[in-house]
């Protein structure tokens, strides 16, 4: 055999060997809506990705693309991941829903997991956390802590997830403080620190002394700190660098157990499409430490509520509740079903303002 | 709806803050374009300035040093553009876009260790009597020094372009680089100086976001302000005072629409959200009906052998 042929043969054998090794690995892709350094939503998803790597070591390879715009461009990114051999792809924002479904149709062998959506398929699961349980705790603290009785709320997009959080926070703030009033600003972005900071400043200028946010950066915390006597809550991640004040508590997303479980299911072939929605009880939603800026009795009240939600003895959406237009929604003692919650497109009675359509 | 909740004094004071990053970046780009160079890398230079300023301010504890570092950082990044367009004679549009992408990546890399850190606060100008005046005090006398610097810079650039010899030479280079070259002016050198100035201004604008307006570091935090600044220069028909007007208009309506939302005004939020862009474009389109001032050599490559 001529040397060149030996070389070629060796190269081929080597090439085959590496492909064989590559096939052993399970490739898991992640599509992020923000940068991994946002300190909030995307940061927590990326922590969970690292947890998957730590759990499975060499058996798994993870890839991610950050700051992917919601909408049509996401389809290109997801397709690209599937083409490059991903076995399991997590698309981690509501706005990737239709794109995930579209790509899934083209790649029946690839498994997809879409966060916070509601459309499933044979190879598409959806998963989300019951953040509204955490917002009930925040609402309680907000209602007790406000002196001006004005609570500012920075919303991202008018989707069920965000509206659900507003309703939950409002119901529980009103429960402990009948005079509380919500001022809502829609930012129409998940992540734009300058805009979030401006929104927080505006709410503070208009009298809010508690700021709740459903956007991903820590800019509102910074604005609240500059303004002085205003409190905020960490969103998605703990944001503890702003504790003990202005950040007095937080809702923490913990995706790691779920990501590890689903990756394992792909590895052992037991993966099936599912619809998972876990809350405080299952540990998918965590409540960050309530800081000393909150008086002890309020802290105890909030923790009692958290415990009741965790053990299932209390549901944040328990009647009697009316919709904003005054029509009946839940009767005395009745709790909301998951279908209504998942598609929630109305405010409860008492919240002022319209939901952008 | 409760319009009384909106305090016009605070509104004006905060619109000035919201407008300053755009203003700084736009006035720098104006000088660059007046010299006949189209640098689309403003966003990249801003974000680089944002992290340079942030990191130096955190390390030294001095926000002012941070701003200096931001200007240097923006200018250093623009050197890459100089190399591409003035030395290698590459296409300016492509080079500018590349500069933005490069800047976004570089800043994310540099900023790895700075997520979640609080910068030292920039002190506000606090003049005993003047700052306490009702209405006038919060609007005119209670901002940070960089904001005033931005306004002064507009005035200086306007005066320089209109009345000084340097300005005339710069404009000559931008209008007709061959003629300027024939007259013996160093076209390339002047353009390099203009590009560096533009980079420094963009860097300052970026640092204003990371040190004062937000103040924190997060990747991608300039969120398109550089592109708005670029558009502003064109719509303001390359006139400094109109850049100021456009920046304040844009910043003002951005802040106003948030105020209106918080006050519960019954206008669909989507209209409010697009209003800053819409109103700014409308007003500037009307202003740009005067076609006097697009530099004739804008975006064209100069090579002395022609």
Automatic annotation (TrEMBL), chain A:
Write the record's keywords in alphabetical order, separated by commas.
Answer: Signal
Q: Which residue intervals define the domain ABC transporter substrate-binding protein PnrA-like in the entry? A: 25-306
Q: Where is the signal peptide?
A: 1-22
Any one of the GO CC terms: plasma membrane
Bilayer-crossing regions: none
Q: What is this protein called?
A: BMP family ABC transporter substrate-binding protein
Q: What CDD domains is this protein classified in?
A: PBP1_BMP-like
Can the keyword Signal be found in this entry's annotation? yes
| Keyword check for Signal | yes
UniProtKB/TrEMBL annotation, chain B:
Task: List the subcellular locations.
Answer: Cell membrane
Stated membrane topology is:
Multi-pass membrane protein
Highest taxon listed in the record's lineage: Bacteria
Does Cell membrane appear among the keywords?
yes
The question of whether Ribosomal protein is a record keyword is answered with no
Which sequence ranges are marked TM in the entry? Answer: 6-25, 37-58, 64-84, 96-115, 135-161, 192-214, 220-238, 245-265, 271-289
Q: What is its main location?
A: membrane
* Molecular function GO terms recorded: transmembrane transporter activity
One GO cellular component term of this record is: plasma membrane
Extract the InterPro entries matched here: ABC_transp_permease
Pfam families from the UniProt entry: BPD_transp_2
Q: Which UniProt keywords apply?
A: Cell membrane, Membrane, Transmembrane, Transmembrane helix
Record's protein name: ABC transporter permease
Which species is the source of this protein? Pukyongiella litopenaei
Organism lineage reads as:
Bacteria, Pseudomonadati, Pseudomonadota, Alphaproteobacteria, Rhodobacterales
């Amino acid at each position: 055999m001529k040397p060149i042929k030996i070389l070629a043969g060796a190269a081929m054998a080597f090439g085959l060997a590496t492909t064989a090794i590559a096939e052993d690995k399970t490739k898991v892709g992640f599509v992020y809506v923000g940068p991994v350094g946002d300190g909030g939503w995307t940061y927590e998803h990326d922590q969970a990705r690292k947890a998957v790597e730590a759990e499975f070591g060499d058996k798994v390879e993870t890839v991610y693309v950050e700051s992917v715009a919601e909408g049509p461009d996401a389809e290109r990114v997801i397709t690209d991941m599937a083409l490059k051999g991903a076995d399991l792809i997590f698309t981690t924002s509501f706005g990737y829903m239709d794109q995930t479904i579209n790509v899934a149709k083209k790649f029946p062998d690839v498994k997809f997991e879409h966060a916070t959506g509601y459309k499933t398929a044979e190879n598409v699961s959806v998963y989300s956390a019951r953040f509204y349980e955490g917002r009930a705790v925040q609402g309680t603290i907000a209602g007790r802590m406000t002196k001006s009785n004005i609570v500012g709320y920075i919303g991202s997009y008018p989707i069920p997830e965000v509206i659900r959080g507003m309703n939950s926070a409002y119901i529980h703030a009103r429960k402990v403080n009948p005079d509380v009033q919500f001022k809502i600003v829609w930012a129409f972005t998940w992540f734009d620190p300058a805009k979030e900071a401006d929104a927080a400043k505006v709410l503070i200028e208009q009298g809010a002394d508690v700021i709740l946010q459903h956007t991903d950066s820590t800019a509102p915390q910074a604005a609240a700190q500059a303004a002085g006597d205003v409190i905020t809550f960490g969103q998605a991640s703990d944001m503890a660098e702003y504790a003990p004040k202005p950040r007095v508590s937080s809702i923490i997303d913990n995706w790691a157990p779920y990501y590890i479980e689903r990756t394992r299911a792909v590895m052992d072939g037991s993966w099936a499409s599912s619809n998972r929605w876990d809350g405080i009880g299952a540990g998918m939603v965590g409540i960050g430490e309530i800081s000393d800026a909150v008086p002890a009795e309020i802290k105890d009240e909030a923790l009692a509520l958290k415990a009741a939600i965790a053990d299932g003895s209390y549901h944040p959406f328990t009647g009697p509740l009316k919709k904003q237009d005054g029509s009946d929604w839940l009767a005395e003692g009745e709790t909301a079903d998951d279908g209504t919650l998942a598609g929630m497109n109305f405010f409860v009675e008492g919240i002022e303002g319209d939901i952008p359509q | 709806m409760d319009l009384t909740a909106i305090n016009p004094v605070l509104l004006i004071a905060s619109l000035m803050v919201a407008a300053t990053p755009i203003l700084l970046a736009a006035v720098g780009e104006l000088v660059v374009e007046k010299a006949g160079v189209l640098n689309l890398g403003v966003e990249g230079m801003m974000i680089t300035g944002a992290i340079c300023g942030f990191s130096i301010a955190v390390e030294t504890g001095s926000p002012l040093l941070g701003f200096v570092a931001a200007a240097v950082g923006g200018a250093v990044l623009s050197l890459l553009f100089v190399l591409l367009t003035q030395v290698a004679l590459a296409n300016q549009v492509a080079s500018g876009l590349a500069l933005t992408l490069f800047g976004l990546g570089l800043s994310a890399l540099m900023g790895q260790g700075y997520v979640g850190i609080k910068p030292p606060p920039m002190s506000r100008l606090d003049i005993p009597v003047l700052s306490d005046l009702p209405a006038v005090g919060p609007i005119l006398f209670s901002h940070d020094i960089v904001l005033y610097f931005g306004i002064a810079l507009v005035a200086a650039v306007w005066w320089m372009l209109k009345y000084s010899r340097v300005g005339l030479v710069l404009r000559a280079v931008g209008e007709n680089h061959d003629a300027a070259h024939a007259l013996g002016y160093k076209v390339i050198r002047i353009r390099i100086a203009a590009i560096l100035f533009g980079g420094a201004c963009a860097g300052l604008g970026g640092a204003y976001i990371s040190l004062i307006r937000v103040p924190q570091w997060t990747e991608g935090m300039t969120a398109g302000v550089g592109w708005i600044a670029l558009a502003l220069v064109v719509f303001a028909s390359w006139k400094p005072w109109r850049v100021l007007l456009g920046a304040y208009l844009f910043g003002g309506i951005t802040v106003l629409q948030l105020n209106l939302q918080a006050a519960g005004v019954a206008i669909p939020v989507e209209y409010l959200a697009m209003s800053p862009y819409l109103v700014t474009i409308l007003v500037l389109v009307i202003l740009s009906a005067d076609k006097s001032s697009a530099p004739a050599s804008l975006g064209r490559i100069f090579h002395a052998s022609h």
